Amino acid sequence: MYGDYEIQTLPLSLGSTRKRVEHFLAENGLRLDTVDYYAVVTRVDDDQILAGGGLDGNVIKCVAVSDELRGTGMMQSLLSHLLSTARERGHQQVRVFTKPSNQDIFASLGFKMLAAAPQAIMMENAVGGLTDYCNYLMGLRRPGKNGMIVMNANPFTQGHLALVEYASSQVNTLYVIVVKEDCSRFSYTSRLAMVKNGCSHVRNAVVCEGSDYAISAATFPTYFLKQLSDASDTQILLDLDLCVRHLAPALGATVRFVGNEPTDLVTARYVELMQQHLPQHGIDVVVMPRVTQEGQVVSASLVRGDLHDGDLSHAIPLVPHSTLPYLLSELARQALEEELMTTPKPGLVDEHDNGSHNDMDIPLMRHSIEALRPSFDQLALLGDSRLLPPSEYIQHLGVVSEQKMLQATHGVNTHRGALFSIGLALVAASHTWHNEHAFKAKALRQDIMKLAHGIVPANNGSHGYRAVEAHHVEGALEMARHGYQRLFNEWLPFHASLNGDPYRDHKTLLLIMSELDDTNVIHRVGYEMAQAVKREALEMLKHFSIEGLEAMNRSFVSRNISPGGAADMLSLTIFIDSITK
């Protein structure tokens, strides 16, 4: 309570409440931006919004105050409330992007200026915060002429490498800062490792950890700008001012290197404003022509496009060898995602329903996939050598990865089978390319078989183990030891032959279901019913229709049938198809 006024939280998930807030902000010349918490000031006996402000993680947004409360101190009270709430939520660094005219208000609450542009400022209330990051950079500083590059490296390409190699020849020490913001296809951890590995031969290049202070279109709020068309320039100018005030001085950098941008308009504008802004503050800008191959500019977006199309062969020439394991890892993740989103699927989690599972859904499966990403990186890197790694290394990493997956899913076994099969394939694929510079099916199979024969069978009493023992069917380990014979001889060619068919994953799943002795199905409904399921799948494949598949799903759910083993093999088929095209 604040005299005749009170601060209360409003749930913006309610449409009527959201409209009230939008109307209030519009009256004050603002727009509602993304927030996960919003508080308002009202009279004790009235619900009219007189002031409001929100939080998006650790960023204060959408703060406005009516004429009635201006000069009363309620703005400071509201901001103190938001600051306290952010702290309670675990954020020790709280930031705000706001109009320059609001600087004194936030300064009175302990916010310090980080960067400024004509239409916006960035301020922070923190112990340490940007100061700590600049101290880290100062610890890396070396004497002489120093230069810097800021890159996202999503992923690290031949173009990035050429820029680093050229820039390093122009200075005594080159600092490469990797953008930390995690809204890219490749995680920050993967991108940082890619850059470090790719630059390891450049002796005077120092790869720096990124910070939370890069300002991009994803992090810069636009709610207070009168014209949205001003957003891009304002965001860029704030980012450049942050560099001028803090990053470059901490590193002693007097030159910044960047590649020119012939295709992306926003990046081209960034380079243009960099050339205008940085020299005014004693920092030279060197723009290097982009690397081309066969008349095409090498870019990370081009690589991502090839991966999206499941065509690794086009992406490989665009990246240094050190990046390849991360491309393989991403294709493994993408294969799991593609299987998950194949809809409808009989008895399995998809976009329509949870199939025969009451403990799994799309969000949980995605948490599981994300939890496996670092392990996929490690497995691909493990195979990137002349000799195959010992199977016990892989088995140990598999156990650790499974534990991380189960931790992410609160104990639900979402991808244990897929982790085993794709994990072996990742190591084998990376090893095959390292030695042959090609992904030949024969070499892949041989490596998978060698690795699998070194795996110690787990007599753990699992559902799959009991099904194999009771019915003498081929389990996951035996399939791997036989080099996934059916997959390479039948399922993979079938999947490849359906390129362009929007239902090729559905049809490939049905083919796998018609041939695989799925231990998950055997566990749930017994061996005889599992054979019937194989016949049903074959019949559905012969007379394929989405309506029939939906009916099959309803039937499977009613009988508690879930062909999880077939789903794992579909993911593996998709992955191997993407690297052997």
Structure description:
This protein has a 7-stranded mixed beta sheet, sandwiched between helices. It is globular and about 80 Å long. The protein has 23 helices and 14 strands. It is α/β, with parallel strands linked by helices. Strand 13 (292-293) and strand 14 form a beta hairpin. The N and C termini lie far apart (67 Å). The model has no long low-confidence stretch (mean pLDDT 92). The chain folds into 3 domains: 1-91, Gcn5-related N-acetyltransferase (GNAT) (Aminopeptidase); 136-301, HUPs (Rossmann fold, 3-Layer(aba) Sandwich); 322-580, Orthogonal Bundle (Triphosphoribosyl-dephospho-CoA protein), CATH 1.10.4200. Helix 16 packs across helix 20 (519-525) and helix 20 (519-525) crosses helix 21 (527-542).
Terminal residue distance = 67 Å
Give the beta-strand count.
Answer: 14
The oligomeric state is single chain
Measured as a percent range, the helix fraction is 40-55%
Supply the helix-strand structural class.
alpha/beta
Could you say how many structural domains there are in total? 3
Number of helices: 23
Stretches where pLDDT is under 50 for at least 5 consecutive residues are none
The backbone outline, from C-alpha atoms, is: globular
CATH topology of the largest domain: Triphosphoribosyl-dephospho-CoA protein
User: What kind of sheet is the major sheet?
Assistant: 7 strands, mixed
CATH superfamily of the largest domain: Triphosphoribosyl-dephospho-CoA protein
* Fraction in beta strands: 5-15%
Mean pLDDT: 92
Radius of gyration: 28 Å
User: Would you identify the CATH architecture of the largest domain?
Assistant: Orthogonal Bundle
Q: What is the spatial order of strands in the main beta sheet?
A: 1-2-3-4-5-7-6
Task: Please write the CATH class name of the largest domain.
Answer: Mainly Alpha
